[in-house]
Amino acid sequence: MKVEVDVHRCVAAGQCAMIAPDVFDQRDEDGVVVLLDEAPGEEQRDVVSESAMACPAAAIRLVPA
């Protein structure tokens, strides 16, 4: 699985960073998403999928590897 984020769509809600802190963070200055791991392991699949579904801006996309 590969993770893509659209920082231009991000509304800095922070749901992704709360759900999957090993994969997502937020910039200090404006709260916009920072992708920490663009290819997380299978053990992260559930939380990354949950993060994508919880994103109010639909800024997270999962791409099959």
Structural class: alpha+beta
N-to-C span: 5 Å
CATH topology: Alpha-Beta Plaits
Task: Give the amount of beta strand, in percent.
Answer: 15-25%
Oligomer: single chain
Relative helix content? 10-25%
Largest sheet: 2 strands, antiparallel
**Could you name the CATH class?**
Alpha Beta
Low-confidence parts lasting 5 or more residues at pLDDT below 50? Answer: none
Q: How are the strands of the biggest sheet laid out side by side?
A: 1-4
How many strand units? 4
What does the overall shape look like? Answer: globular
Number of helices: 2
What order do the helices and strands follow? EHEEHE
Named CATH architecture: 2-Layer Sandwich
Q: Give the rounded overall mean pLDDT.
A: 97
Radius of gyration: 10 Å
Total discrete domains: 1
Task: Describe the structure in brief.
This protein has a single domain, classed as 2-Layer Sandwich (Alpha-Beta Plaits), CATH 3.30.70. Helix content is 23%, strand content 22%. The protein is α+β, with helices and mostly antiparallel strands.
